[in-house]
Design brief:
Layout (H helix, E strand, L loop, with lengths): L5 E5 L5 H10 L5 E5 L11 H17 L4 E4 L2 H6 L1 H4 L7 E2 L2 H11 L3 E6 L1 H6 L1 H9 L4 E6 L3 H6 L6 H11 L7 E4 L8 H8 L4 E4 H15 L11 E5 L6 H9 L6 E2 L2 H4 L4
Parallel strand pairs: 1-2, 1-3, 2-9, 3-4, 5-6, 5-7, 7-8, 9-10
Helix pairs in contact: 1-11, 5-7, 5-11, 9-10
The structure holds D-glutamic acid.
D-glutamic acid binds next to helix 3.
């Protein structure tokens, strides 16, 4: 049994869609969330930068004495997780593998993926899907404008509708659509209207939550403390992050600002 918090990391507020699912699944756990809003978006950065920034985030959370870390970011999972997971003596979970384990059980082979440009470029989803389901047909589309729109709080307005419509146009007969960026569940209604009811829309947070529960059980890390606290840190708090985060989590979030000189080293 371990009452320390679980650390959750993303480039912005998007990872809160994952946090929300985990909080629902694990109601007795406490959480520390870090959104690297100062360096958002990660989707357009190089792999080297994403690895460096993800390491910084992980080290910040480790200093906060978390017991497990969730990389609640498709971009960081697809490009950094394999390089960093063995560097630290703590379990680290990404968003891709737990989701692909689920897709494999559905028996659906025509799979669409939308994600940031970096994630799509890395082919992280495609490789993971084909590794488990070799006869799958994967269609991937980069949607670089969607995560910034979500940070802006534009999920259901005309601009969101037009952008989603334009991005989803090339999909051909998909059965499943993976929202491969953790910002996108906030666009679910808009995406559903466009893609139609027959396509199963995958919110990756749900499967990360299931995986988190398994790992806590496996490593005997469950909390028996009922204080269940949530601390939220952003590296930049000037913008609409508190507003978007509060709406998403369903309670008032007042994020703290990370003191960068103690946590981020510029080489
Ligand atoms: N939430 C992040 C992801 O899942 C990313 C958006 C970004 O930083 O570009 O990919």
């Amino acid at each position: 049994m371990d009452n320390r918090p679980i650390g959750v990391f993303d480039s912005g507020v998007g990872g809160m869609t994952v946090l929300k699912e985990i909080m629902e699944k694990l109601p007795t756990e406490s959480f520390i969330y870090l959104g690297d809003t100062k360096r958002f978006p990660y989707g357009s950065k190089t792999k080297e930068s994403i690895i460096e920034l993800t390491k910084n985030g992980i080290e910040f959370l480790i200093k906060k004495d978390v017991k497990l870390i969730i990389i609640a970011c498709g971009t960081a999972t697809s490009q950094a997780l394999d390089f960093i997971k063995n560097l630290y003596n703590i379990p680290i979970i990404g968003v891709i593998r737990p989701t692909v384990e689920y897709i494999n059980k559905t028996n659906k082979k025509n799979i669409g993926v939308i994600a940031t440009a970096g994630t799509i470029r890395s082919k992280g989803w495609e490789k993971a899907i084909l590794n488990k389901i070799p006869d799958a047909k994967v269609q991937s589309i980069a949607c670089p404008l969607l995560a910034p729109m979500v940070e802006e709080g534009w999920n259901e307005n005309k601009i969101a509708t037009l952008a989603v419509k334009e991005y989803l146009k090339p999909f051909n007969k998909i059965q499943t659509l993976i929202l491969g960026c953790t910002h996108y569940p906030l666009l679910t209604k808009t995406i559903k209207k466009q893609i139609g009811r027959k396509v199963e829309i995958i919110n990756i947070g749900k499967f990360v939550a299931i995986k988190t529960k398994q790992i806590l059980n496996e490593f005997k890390l469950n909390s028996i403390d009922n204080k269940k606290q949530l601390e939220v840190y952003f590296t930049e708090t000037e913008y609409k992050f508190n507003e978007v985060a509060s709406k998403l989590i369903g309670k008032k979030i007042q994020a703290k600002l990370v003191e960068e000189e103690n946590t981020y080293v510029i080489k």
